[in-house]
Amino acid sequence: MDIEQIIIIALTFAFPWLSYDYFKYKTKMKELEVKLDKSNKIKMNDEIGSMKHRLVVLEKIITDKGYEIDNEINKL
Question: Over the chain, what is the mean pLDDT?
Fold first, then answer.
């Protein structure tokens, strides 16, 4: 047997093993990406909820009659 035949035989037996590990790795990476996306989506929803709450508070401050009177006094 010459070296070329040995290399071909080695690659023939190694390819399924290497491809199995590669696809297992890719599957695990996809699972982690999905988990990260879900985590980011939850964080963004929490942040949006917080911002909505802050907006409501600011709207209450702006529409408060006392705020308008203070602005008028400051203008004078």
Answer: 85
Two structure tokens written together for 64: 């408060």
With beta carbons less than 8 A apart as the criterion, state whether 67 and 61 touch: yes
Backbone angles phi, psi at 64, to 5 degrees: -70, 135
C-alpha dist (Å) from residue 59 to 43, 49, 65, 73: 24, 15, 12, 20
Q: What confidence category does residue 51 fall into, taking pLDDT thresholds of 50, 70 and 90?
A: very high
The whole-model pTM stands at 0.50
Show the 3-state SS of 42-75. Answer: HHHHHHHHHHHHHHHHHHHHHHCHHHHHHHHHHH
